[in-house]
Backbone:
């Protein structure tokens, strides 16, 4: 068999794959699980609503100035929903001060004592309230009943947020540790409790710091309930390890059609959580791509500072909300090819950097990093108007 025959044989095999003739069933297009649809402020969650991305503020809630600054940054990077911790009555007062200055829906995060939840619900200071089943009933079931009664009166949805680190003692005693089955049982038990109180406007989360346990818990729960699911890995870790764990768990669940809203939990700024969450959805083809930077991993052939240039251009695309693809390539091996298929590109080579627009080289510059960043920004902004 000669080279041409091998070439044609391989092409035929790829055509078979492309036409789906030999694809296993699990490679079928992503099919979203059908869930109830609820409304969190202006954002629908579940049903046929787009999968939303949310985050949680990191600044102390009582520091109103810092909180407003962070909320503005979160809005600017395109978060759909934001959660704010409300641990005490001081935080309720702060929440009241920022409520009307935030454009995206607010979820009030409540643990332990019911008083903050009651005040938030009475004054309509949030679009959703998150309760932790592992600690909200510590002070008595009647307090949960009061929260549910007010939520029902105001038609504010409740998120039943189960965490592996704070499961109820009876469930922990039964299972010995926070297994996926324990998470599922806690979630279903509390959903049934709230249903018995006559309320059905809920979404549910079942989070562990283990991607495996998280995946299994959500898959178990999705078989016994059709409430919309807030999907995430809790205490996922630092920017690097947390992104990896979240991408694995969320990617698998979303590919299997499980998940209606997501949060990537990182020991990093909230804006990073939003960006990573959006990138996960974009990578799966679930969400339309925003501006995208393709950058080579660099090697000894690299002629320009790819890392610094790529990071700066990515920030520019996020801030400007320009939906363009940009290739930042260190040398001429793959640089011209990647720049050919991108909207914009820069390639390091020899004594200069070559800039591309719509696949064609347009100008050159020196290899100074600041100069390259400036010229690339100018090209992107001028051509994207």
Residues:
């Amino acid at each position: 068999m000669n080279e041409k025959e091998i070439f044609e044989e391989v092409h035929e095999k790829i055509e078979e794959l492309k036409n789906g003739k030999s694809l296993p069933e699990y490679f079928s297009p992503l099919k979203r699980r059908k869930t109830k649809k609820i409304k969190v402020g202006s954002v629908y969650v579940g049903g046929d609503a787009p999968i939303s991305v949310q985050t949680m503020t990191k600044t102390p809630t009582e520091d109103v100035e810092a909180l407003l600054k962070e909320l503005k940054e979160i809005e600017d990077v395109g978060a759909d929903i934001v959660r704010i911790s409300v641990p005490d009555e001081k935080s309720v007062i702060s929440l009241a001060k920022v409520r009307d200055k935030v454009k995206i829906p607010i979820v009030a995060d409540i643990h332990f004592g019911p008083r903050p939840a009651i005040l938030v619900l009475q004054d309509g200071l949030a679009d959703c309230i998150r309760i932790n089943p592992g600690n909200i009933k510590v002070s008595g079931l009647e307090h949960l009943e009061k929260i549910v009664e007010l939520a029902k009166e105001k038609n504010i949805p409740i998120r039943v947020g189960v965490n592996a680190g704070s499961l109820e003692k009876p469930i922990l005693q039964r299972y010995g540790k926070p297994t996926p089955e324990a998470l599922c049982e806690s979630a279903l038990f509390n959903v049934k409790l709230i249903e018995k109180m006559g309320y059905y406007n809920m979404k549910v989360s079942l989070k562990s710091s283990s991607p495996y346990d998280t995946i299994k818990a959500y898959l178990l729960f999705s078989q016994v309930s059709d409430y919309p699911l807030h999907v995430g890995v809790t205490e996922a870790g630092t920017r690097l390890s947390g992104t990896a764990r979240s991408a694995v768990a969320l990617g698998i669940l979303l590919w299997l059609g499980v998940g209606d809203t997501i949060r990537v939990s990182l020991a990093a700024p909230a804006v990073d959580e939003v960006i990573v969450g959006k990138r996960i959805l974009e990578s799966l083809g679930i969400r339309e791509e925003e501006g995208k930077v393709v950058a080579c991993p660099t090697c000894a052939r690299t002629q320009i500072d790819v890392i610094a240039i790529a990071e700066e251009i990515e920030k520019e695309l996020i801030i400007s909300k320009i939906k363009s693809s940009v290739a930042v390539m260190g040398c001429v091996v793959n640089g011209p090819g990647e720049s050919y298929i991108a909207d914009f590109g820069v390639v390091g080579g020899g004594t200069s950097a070559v800039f591309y627009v719509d696949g064609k080289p347009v100008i050159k510059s020196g290899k100074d990093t600041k100069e390259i960043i400036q010229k690339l920004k100018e090209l992107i902004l001028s051509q994207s108007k």
In short: The domain at 38-283 is CATH 3.20.20.20 (TIM Barrel).
